[in-house]
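Hey all, quick one. A colleague (J.T.) asked me to put the flavin mononucleotide job into the tracker so the inputs and the C-alpha cells live in one place instead of scattered across chat threads. No bug as far as I know, just bookkeeping. Sequence used:
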Amino acid sequence: MSVQIGSFEAREGLFLAPLAGYTDLAFRRVCASFGAEYAVTEMISAKAVVMKNKKTLSLARLGGPPTAVQLFGAEPETVAAAAAFFSSEEGEALCGARPAAIDLNFGCPMKKIVSNGEGAALMRDPGLAGRVVAAAVRASTLPVTVKIRAGWDGEHKNAPEIARVAEASGASAVTVHARTREQFYTGEADLAVIAETAAAVRIPVLGNGDIRSPEDASRMLRETGCAGLVIGRGAVGRPWLFSEILAARRGESFAPPPGEEIARITLAQFADMLREKGERVGVSEARKHLSAYLAGFPGAAAARARVNLLSDPAAIAETVLPVLAPEAGEGALASFFPRGE
Ligand SMILES: Cc1cc2nc3c(=O)[nH]c(=O)nc-3n(C[C@H](O)[C@H](O)[C@H](O)COP(=O)(O)O)c2cc1C
C-alpha cells in the first residue's frame, strides 16, 4: 500500500486533501497525529506568489507531516516562477520547511477560477495543461504532482487523458477527485473514472471523493486499484478517521475518542490556530472547525450560535468545553485550552 512521491514514501498511502479554508497548518498537524502521512496546503495563486502577496504566502507555512504546496494558475511561466520560488532557499525559509512537492490544481470548479482558465478549466485544454506541468517540472527541483477531476462534465470525462499528459510532462503522481466540474461537490463520485486513470498511467494515482469510513476506504481501493487515498471533508471534525481506517486495515477494533479527548483535540487545534494566525483571524477561521467537532453532541446548535457571536477566545473555549466534555467541570478550562502565550 506504499506510495512513493519523490524521495517520500507514504507507507499506508493515507493523504489529507487540500481544502481551502480548512487544511491550514494547525489542522494538518492534527490529522498527522492520527495517521495522515502527507498533506497539501490550501490552494495558492501562482500569480500572487510571484507578486509576493503576504496573505497568500502565509498559506504556505509548513510543519507537521510532509506537505506539498498547491498552486493554481494557467500561465506556464507564472506557475514555473512560483514553483521555482518554493524550491529556492528563500521559499523554504518562508515555508519553515522544504515542501514535499508542488501540487498543481486542475480541479477547482469555482467560477472566478475557471473563468480565468485556471483550476478545472485546464481539464478542457490538455495541451495547456501539459505545458503548465512541464514548466513547473523544469523550474523546480521538487516533485510535481497534479490534482484533477473526472472531467469537465458528464460528456467529457477525460481524467485518463489528462493523467497521461501530466505523466508525459514529468508529473510524479496524480490525484483524481471522481466528480466532474459540473458536479462541483454534489452527486455521486464515479469510481470507474479513477480505475480507468489508474490503468492509463504508471505514476501513482490517488483516489479521492467521499471517503468517510473504513468501508468507503476499502471500496475505493477495491474498485479503482488506486495507489493511495486522499481524504478531505471526512476528516473535518473527525480527524481520527485516519486511525479508524488504519485500525480496520489491521483487523483491530476502533473506538472513537470520548468527548473529553475530543475537547482536548478541538481546543489544542484552536490554540494552535490562534498562535499561527493571531486572535482575530484565528477566531474567525476556527469557527467552522469548532462547529464540525460539536456535531452530534447535545447542545451543539446553541453552542455554535454562541460561538459565532463571540470573539474572545477564552469565552469561545468556555462555550465549547461543557458541550464536548460535560463531566470536565468548572475550572478545567486551563488544562484543555493550552494557549501557551
Ligand atoms: C471547502 C472545500 C475547499 C476545497 N479546496 C480545495 C483546494 O484548495 N484545492 C484542491 O485541489 N481541492 C480543494 N477541494 C476539493 C477537495 O480536495 C476534494 O477533492 C473534494 O472535497 C472531494 O474529496 P472529499 O469527499 O474527501 O472531501 C476543496 C473542497 C471543499 C469542500
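Adding what we noticed when we looked at it: The longest strand covers residues 144-151. The chain has two domains: 3-249, 259-336.
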